[in-house]
Write a structure and sequence with these properties.
This protein is an all-alpha fold. Helices cover 75% and strands 0% of the residues. It is built from 6 helices and no strands. α1 crosses α4 (81-100) and α3 packs antiparallel against α4. The protein is elongated, with a radius of gyration of 15 Å. It starts with a helix and ends in a 5-residue tail after the last helix.
Length: 138
């Protein structure tokens, strides 16, 4: 079980690291890597996602995006490669903490992110939840 948890954490960190530069690339990475650790979970990806889970995802996504925006500008303004790498690692940790503080797990977050990439109807529902979760911004 510890190995599986480590695998999910590594996958999530990799996906989050790309989010700093491109959310679409992070979705693609999550999609490609999600297939590997999903041994024995063949039906899980096609299971419907409840509105409650989508709302929890939206809350987590907005927090992750806030961290991404903060660190993206800091990383972009840094010229030293080792400092950029340190900031990237710090950003990854903060994004994971943001998801862990939300009502869903990191694994559920990654799963919904991947599912939304593959399902336009789900992506639309996620977008609606995101918009309703932050009506004052935009």
């Amino acid at each position: 079980m510890l190995t599986r948890r480590t695998s999910v954490a590594s996958l999530t960190a990799a996906a989050f690291s790309l989010m700093v530069y491109s959310p679409a690339a992070a979705l693609e990475l999550a999609q490609a890597q999600q297939a590997e650790p999903a041994q024995g979970q063949t039906g899980a990806a096609s299971a419907p996602i409840s509105d409650q889970k989508l709302e929890a995802f939206a809350v987590a996504y907005l927090q992750v995006d806030k961290v991404r925006q903060e660190y993206s500008s800091r990383i972009g303004s840094e010229s030293d490669a080792s400092t950029k790498e340190k900031l990237q690692t710090e950003a990854n940790q903060e994004m994971v903490k943001a998801v862990e503080a939300s009502p869903i797990s990191v694994e559920e977050y990654t799963s919904i992110l991947t599912a939304a990439q593959n399902d336009p109807a789900l992506a639309k529902k996620v977008q609606e939840k995101l918009q309703s979760s932050q009506p004052a911004q935009q």
